[in-house]
Amino acid sequence: MPQVRWGLCRATLALALTVVAPWPVAQAHGDHVGHAGPDLLDCEHLPADARTALPAPLVEWARVECSPSGQMLAPGAGWQWRYPATYVVRPQAPAWSPAASAGTPGAKYFIDFQLVEITGADRDAEHTRLLRDSAIYRRNFEHAPTAAWRLVAENNLGHAFEIVFPQDKAGRIWAILCTPECRPEYAYLMEPVEGVR
After folding, report:
1. CA-CA distance, 7 to 51, in Å (whole number)?
2. Per-residue model confidence as pLDDT tens for the chain (197 residues)
3. Dihedral of CA 142/146/155/89: which sign?
């Protein structure tokens, strides 16, 4: 039995070193760009084509966050993002979300954001598509949204994903992430934090 425990301890230690060891490299500062290594993103010295600014009105609800793994969209100041059944897990929309980026090593960052308001017949068509493709949307939108926007976010590999932001009758804004599928775990609610805004 002691051999089994020692083996488990060695495996746990090896895993911990694998996760923690690269951290100081990503946080180190130097005189040249890209010094964090090919698989990590240096958030203090982003590549020249990395985007950090979001278009309006998305900039009200979201911000670009950076980590050694890459950039991601995260809640803006005074906002919380949550899955419909929980307040515990914080949703994010990382630059590595596109299915085509899944197996490609290296940090991913955003190189372009295109946001358009969806109106009229296009909004009705988007409503029909999301009723078909998103179980979360189906549960929360019987009728077409009162307003909607579509974000196309492109990463440094040239892969893109879209997020549709429909607003329901209560004024709540949802995010339906499609990578290209609009799976249930990719849908979340974006709402202001009471007393902050």
Report:
1. 45
2. 445 444 444 444 343 333 333 332 222 223 333 445 568 999 999 999 999 999 999 999 999 999 999 999 999 999 999 998 888 888 999 999 999 998 899 999 999 999 999 999 999 999 999 999 988 999 989 899 999 999 999 999 999 999 999 999 988 999 999 888 887 778 999 999 875 54
3. negative
Of 151, 153, 5, the C-alpha closest to 70 is 153
Q: What is the pTM of this model?
A: 0.77
Structural contact between residues 148 and 160, judged by C-beta atoms closer than 8 angstroms: no
Q: Which of 143, 120, 141 is nearest to 189 (CA)?
A: 141
User: Tokens 């914080």, residue?
Assistant: 90
CB-CB contact of 161 with 154 (8 Å): no
* Rg of the Cα atoms in the chain: 20
